[in-house]
Design brief:
The complex is a heterodimer. By secondary structure, chain A is mainly β. In chain A, the strands form two sheets. In chain A, strands 2, 4, 5, 6, 9, 10 and 11 form a seven-stranded mixed β-sheet that branches. In chain A, strands 1-3-8-7 form a four-stranded antiparallel β-sheet, with no helix packed on it. In chain A, 0% of the residues lie in helices and 57% in strands. In chain A, a hairpin with a 6-residue loop joins strand 4 and strand 5. Chain B is an all-beta fold. In chain B, the strands form two sheets. In chain B, strands 2, 4, 5, 9, 10 and 11 form a six-stranded mixed β-sheet that branches. Chain B has a five-stranded antiparallel β-sheet with strand order 1-3-8-7-6, with no helix packed on it. The N and C termini of chain B lie far apart (40 Å). In chain B, 0% of the residues lie in helices and 55% in strands. The radius of gyration of chain B is 14 Å and the shape is globular. Chain B contains no helices and eleven strands. The chains are: A mainly beta, B mainly beta. The interface between A and B is medium-sized, with 28 and 28 residues.
């Protein structure tokens, strides 16, 4: 068990669908993150939440909509995605303010058809 | 923007051999982290470095925070088949309080038994 749990592990969706990715952390951390991992590219930071407040949004298209209802849960709502959005979406958590390392979940493998 | 150059991109070695990989940047980093990612899983933290010149070991793994604060290396001694995976370096620039990690592109390691 990683301490950061992501569901679903795999998701196939059409471009007109709406779906949500879920992340839950059991580590007592107060910051949560969404990363996108595409083949042959570095991990791309999408969103950062600190104490449930969004503190970073890295120019992510509006078809990705994050939600952080509390410090243990993070969602990524998806709608009208494009095939190039197919990737591994990784959630991570950490303590804030002391450069503490990120702890990652196992990701959701998303395929947009 | 800030970038990390990680090399080599891939390695194919014989079991028992030692491995070395490194990351360099044109910017100064305050934290260096090394992660390993197995297929179908999220990155797992191997070693965290917080001070220039710091040398830290974790079993057969050894990593160093370069004295210029612009580079780091990871060594794996006496490689075994389970060392197979993708190794990522990551750095935190400045005193970021959003935990903004910048990742290298990864080194794919294959070990021949």
């Amino acid at each position: 068990e990683t301490g950061v749990t992501q569901t679903p592990r795999h998701l196939v969706m059409g471009m007109t669908n709406k779906k949500s990715l879920k992340c839950e952390q059991h580590l007592g951390h107060n910051a949560m993150y969404w990363y996108k991992q595409s083949a042959k590219k570095p991990l791309e930071l999408m969103f950062v939440y600190s104490l449930e407040e969004r503190v970073e949004n890295n120019s992510v298209p509006s078809r990705f909509s994050p939600e952080c209802p509390n410090s243990s849960h993070l969602f990524l709502h998806l709608h009208t995605l494009q095939p190039e959005d197919s990737a591994l979406y990784l959630c991570a958590s950490s303590r804030m303010r002391d450069n503490s390392p990120l702890h990652f979940g196992n990701g959701t493998r998303l395929t947009v058809t | 923007g800030q970038q990390l150059n990680q090399s080599p991109q891939s390695m194919f070695i014989q079991e028992g051999e030692d491995v070395s990989m490194n990351c360099t940047s044109s910017s100064i980093f305050n934290t260096w982290l090394w992660y390993k990612q197995d297929p179908g899983e999220g990155p797992v933290l191997l070693i965290a470095l917080y001070k220039a010149g710091e040398l830290t070991s974790n079993g057969r793994l050894t990593a160093q925070f370069g004295i210029t604060r612009k580079d780091s290396f990871l060594n794996i001694s006496a490689s075994i088949p389970s060392d197979v995976g993708i190794y990522f370096c990551a750095g935190v620039h400045g005193s970021s309080n959003t935990g903004k990690l910048i990742f290298g592109q990864g080194t794919t390691l294959q070990v021949k038994p």
